[in-house]
Specification:
This protein has nine helices and 15 strands. The chain is of the alpha/beta class and 323 residues long. It has two domains: 138 residues, Medium-chain alcohol dehydrogenases, catalytic domain (Quinone Oxidoreductase, Chain A, domain 1, Alpha-Beta Complex); 139 residues, NAD(P)-binding Rossmann-like Domain (Rossmann fold, 3-Layer(aba) Sandwich). The strands form three sheets. Strands 3, 4, 5, 6, 7, 14 and 15 form a seven-stranded mixed sheet that branches. A six-stranded parallel sheet has the order 10-9-8-11-12-13, sandwiched between helices. The chain has a two-stranded antiparallel sheet with strand order 1-2. Helix 9 links the parallel strand 14 and strand 15. Helix 2 crosses helix 3. The structure holds NADPH dihydro-nicotinamide-adenine-dinucleotide phosphate (NDP). It comes from Zoogloea dura. It holds the Pfam family ADH_zinc_N. This is Oxidoreductase.
């Protein structure tokens, strides 16, 4: 038997005791030690967006734990592994469960320097933050290029992005709707804070040039306003939709300022990129700062916590102690 959160077609969700014969297909069984709650998990658990492909579903787009059994050649019992994305928690039973049966193709080895708890403090949010940083770097943005803006700063992606960029020497400006979190954001390394309301209303197609680059988790008018203020030749890594799915802008920043707008996806990112991102996290993220982002809960607290992340009330990262 194992314990898992299950969401059902009628919109209900509960922590249940399940028989292992109900586990889905897969060639690796994992004893899950920690999982997490990301924004997408909030959407799945509350079913505010139709993300679940079939019911009942065990949510949890992330997990960290130890291989119990494996018929996949790459993995042996006792291996410490991480899983992020690949539709886990949406189309395949996910990490909010004491046992997970998954494809060995989806797993990444856990860097030696991380515990399962630290890996989940990072989770999809932190790994996506690193993908965004790597995207800006590939574009050629360096610490001496100028200020980098991070929106949704107090959230999971935003918090980790600030910590990484600041450690790498960038001057980071954090956009937040929670001015009371300024001390937290400064402790992560933000050099300055701006009020997200200055970005959230429909704006002008081109504003004064300010940002060398930006990481945007909000979408909608925020992303349009960010694009309007990127300096000539700069870039935006757009990864989220906390404000909305819509995006209304004009061609002007693209054709007059050589703006590059990169979409950043974590779910279907290729293995090589994932492994590079996790290796970079092991090198470039201060685990002391990571700890300052974490709130730990148990499986029994997940249902209560899920709506809070959608309401923007969670600071940093939630880790779920599973095993
Ligand atoms: P969080 O809920 O932890 O953070 C989101 C933050 O966005 C909030 O903390 C808040 O920060 C800000 N925010 C909330 N509502 C609004 C609003 N109406 N307008 C502007 N800002 C708002 O989520 P995550 O950091 O985990 O994820 C952020 C986004 O990135 C989500 O949309 C998520 O789905 C997406 N994402 C995408 C991935 C991908 O693969 N493409 C992977 C991971 C995440 P503050 O209070 O500081 O303003």
């Amino acid at each position: 038997m194992f314990q898992a959160i299950q969401v059902n077609e009628d919109g209900s969700a509960a922590l249940r005791e399940l028989d292992e014969s109900t586990l889905p297909d897969g060639d690796v069984d994992i004893d899950v030690e920690y999982s997490t709650i990301n924004y997408k998990d909030g959407l799945v658990i509350t079913q505010r967006m139709p993300l679940v492909k079939h019911f009942p579903m065990v949510p949890g787009i992330d997990l960290a734990g130890v291989v119990r059994t494996s018929t996949h050649p790459a993995w042996q019992p006792g291996d410490r592994v991480i899983l992020n994305g690949y539709g886990v928690g949406e189309s395949h039973w996910g990490g909010l469960s004491t046992c997970a049966r998954v494809s060995g193709e989806w797993l990444v080895p856990m860097p030696d320097s991380f515990s399962s708890r630290q890996a989940m403090a990072i989770g999809t949010a932190g790994y996506t933050a690193m993908l965004c940083v790597m995207t800006l770097e590939r574009h050629g943005i360096r610490p001496d290029s100028g200020e980098v803006l991070v929106t949704g700063a107090s959230g999971g992606v935003g918090s980790v992005a600030i910590a990484i960029l600041s450690r790498l020497g960038y001057r980071v400006v954090a956009s937040t709707g929670r001015p009371e979190e300024a001390p937290y954001l400064k402790a992560l390394g933000a050099a300055a804070i701006i009020d997200r309301n200055t970005l959230s209303a429909p704006g002008v197609p081109m504003a004064e040039e300010r940002w060398a680059g930006a990481i945007d988790t909000a979408g909608s008018h925020t992303l349009a306003n960010v694009c309007a203020a990127v300096r000539y030749g700069g870039a935006v890594a757009a990864t989220g939709l906390a404000q909305g799915l819509d995006f209304h802008t004009t061609m002007l920043p693209f054709v007059l300022r050589n703006l590059a707008l990169y979409g950043v996806d974590s779910v279907r990112a290729p293995q090589a990129l994932r492994r590079e991102a996790w290796a970079r996290l092991a090198r470039d993220l201060d685990t002391g700062l990571l700890e300052s982002m974490v709130t730990e809960i148990g499986l029994q607290d997940v249902l209560q916590c899920a709506p809070q992340i959608l309401e923007g009330r969670i600071r940093g990262r939630i880790v779920v102690k599973v095993g």
